[in-house]
Write a structure and sequence with these properties.
This protein has 181 residues and is an alpha+beta fold. The chain has helices at residues 14-34, 45-63, 69-92, 94-101, 115-121, 125-134, and strands at 105-109, 112-113, 143-148, 154-158, 163-168, 171-176. It has two domains: 4-101, no CATH class; 105-176, CRO Repressor. It has a four-stranded antiparallel β-sheet with strand order 2-1-3-4. It starts with 13 loop residues before the first helix and ends in a 5-residue tail after the last strand.
Length: 181
């Protein structure tokens, strides 16, 4: 058994821990941005397994041989600071926000599926059809517009509806849409 003081004895320099953490955070940010956007409610079992495995792999890359409490706190603090800075930069810099969040992708317009967008976003018809059913639409012919939003939510505008219904993070917002557009 290690002595109590070993919890605070770093085996890796603090700056090295911070740089490893910044590198891992940047790699994960790029990876998640490149490999798609899904809302938390759309996460599959495979996505959860992948996140858990990535977390374990990245943890090793960040701390290396250091298993001290202090090392873990340095890494956690660095991650919190990075997340805070990215959130602030996302708010203040439109170009950065677009890079981090991406842009909405049209999946269906005027009843026509956009297969290239589905492939690019890693979605199948079933996932979009589930969002359609939530909006009372049974098939693509009844959809004026279905969009994968930059936050991962799928917005559906029924062909016969003058109202856009968008569900985001547990809230819904309504905006008027003129008929015929």
């Amino acid at each position: 058994m290690q002595p109590f003081s070993a919890m605070f004895h770093l085996q890796v320099q603090p700056l090295a821990l911070m740089l490893r953490t910044v590198g891992a955070y940047a790699a994960m940010l790029v990876g998640f941005r490149v490999f798609g956007k899904r809302e938390l409610g759309q996460v599959t079992v495979f996505d959860v397994a992948m996140v858990l495995l990535i977390a374990n792999a990245v943890q090793n890359a960040m701390v290396g041989p250091d298993t001290s409490l202090l090392g873990g706190l340095i890494v956690a603090g660095t991650l919190l600071l990075l997340n805070f800075l990215v959130a602030r930069l996302r708010i203040s810099d439109r170009l950065f926000r677009r890079w981090v969040e991406g842009h909405p992708s049209v999946l269906i317009s005027n009843g026509r599926w956009h297969e290239d967008a589905l492939r690019r976003e890693g979605l199948d018809h079933g996932e979009v059809e589930a969002a359609m059913r939530q909006n009372g639409v049974l098939d693509a012919a009844g959809v004026r517009l279905a969009v994968l939003e930059d936050n991962g939510a799928i917005s559906v505008v029924p062909a016969d509806s003058p109202t856009i219904i968008v569900h985001t993070r547990g809230r819904s917002a309504r905006g008027l849409l003129k008929r015929g557009k």
